[in-house]
Amino acid sequence: MADENQGPQGAQDAAEQDASAQGASAPAPEGWDEAFGADAPKPHTPPASDGQQAWQAPVPEPVPVAPAYAKSCLAAGWEDCKQPGFWKKTAFLGLLDLVPVLNFVNTGYALEWSKEVPFGGRTALPQKVVTGRNFEIGFYAFVIALVFSLIGGCAGGIVGWIPLIGWIAALAIGFLVSMFTCVLNLRMAMRSQLGEGFKVGDAWTAIKRDWTGLLCAVVVPGLIAGAIIVVASFVYMFFALLFFLPVMGAAVNPDPAFILGALLGGGLGFLVVTAVFCYLGAWAGAAAQLVSVRAAAHWVARFAGDWTYLA
Predict the structure, then answer these.
(1) Mind telling me which residue stretches traverse the membrane in this protein (predicted)?
(2) Are 184 and 197 contacting, i.e. CB atoms less than 8 angstroms apart?
(3) Cα angle: 12, vertex 16, 17; to 5 degrees
(4) The whole model's pTM is what?
(5) Rounded to whole angstroms, how far apart are CA atoms 45 and 52?
(6) How far apart, in whole angstroms, are the C-alpha atoms of residue 247 and residue 235?
(7) pLDDT in tens, the chain (311 residues)
(8) Alpha-carbon gap, residue 124 to 146, rounded angstroms
(9) Among candidates 223, 238, 297, 305, which has minimal Cα distance to 273?
(10) How far out from the chain centre does Cα 7 lie?
(11) Is the Cβ–Cβ distance between 55 and 48 less than 8 Å?
């Protein structure tokens, strides 16, 4: 009789209490206690009444993610090269670069030293430069570069006939060939097999992950070396002109002694200046190659780490 006398209002209050009891008894999601503690209210807690704000589950603060690499590949490669004896070593490499065939050792030296990076190695520059191993790896790298250069040269020559757009396309093909050649040379050095240098599909899969970083690692050191050579060429032309002035004067002076002196002095001076200029260019090129290959090795370690399973 007491329940019947409650009327409609009493029935509504009873229904709300039953719903609240059902909500409170519902189980919490899996992992709720581990995330917020056993004493925290469950997500099915009924809303507060009498003007009190309903409890809401706390939202975890986002954890800041630190960058995976504090330095770019190029900066990391240059950091590895900044060690005692770098310029002395590259000066010797530049001298070797002037000798045909023997200059294969330069590329082999850079690849043999840099192939350790994907495996976590960070050793100093090797003391020995001219070794059979360096020559072998350098020769393999020459073969790979020759094949890709021929393909890229033919493709660039075809599209180069188109004004402006074709020139831009030819330049892009040249950059792409340089990137493929560099990473495939490293892959070849890591496996010590010439065939690994022609796995174009694997290289393309890796390049798509970060082609801009690889482009900087491959191109920027060469551009810096090229700028140094351009500046040195102006100095070279100035001194070459000075040595040519006596030779030009000999054309109007019939004295044999003057002509002989002008030819010996001017010609010898011109040869010396030319030799110095060529050596400085080779030195800059050797340093740029060493930095570029080391930077590309850092790129392989970051974006082609699966290649380490090949070795």
Answers:
(1) 137-158, 164-186, 214-245, 257-280
(2) yes
(3) 115
(4) 0.72
(5) 13
(6) 19
(7) 444 444 445 544 554 555 444 444 456 566 666 666 666 565 555 555 555 555 565 666 665 544 456 789 999 999 999 999 999 999 999 999 999 999 999 999 999 999 999 999 889 999 999 999 999 999 999 999 999 999 999 999 898 888 889 899 999 999 999 999 999 999 999 999 999 999 999 999 999 999 999 999 999 999 999 999 999 888 888 877 776 666 665 565 666 766 666 666 666 777 888 889 999 999 999 999 999 999 999 999 999 988 987 65
(8) 30
(9) 238
(10) 80
(11) yes
Distance, CA of 36 to CA of 32 (rounded, Å)? 6
Distance CA 28, CA 303 (A): 42
DSSP state of 62: P
The DSSP symbol for 81 reads H
Q: Could you tell me the two tokens for 207? A: 């390049």
Nearest 5°: CA angle at 110, between 204 and 192? 60
* Measured distance CA(47)–CA(57) in Å, rounded: 12
Could you give the CA distance from residue 148 to residue 142 in angstroms, rounded to a whole number? Answer: 10
Q: State both tokens at 200.
A: 């174009």
* Dist CA 234 CA 240 (whole Å): 10
What is the Cα–Cα distance from 45 to 48, expressed in whole angstroms?
A: 9
Are the beta carbons of 290 and 91 closer than 8 angstroms? no
The Cα 137–Cα 189 span in angstroms is 7
Place of tokens 């430069």: 129
Contact present, 294 and 110 (Cβ < 8 Å): yes
As a whole number of Å, the CA-based R_g of the chain is: 36
The identity of residue 248, as a single letter, is M
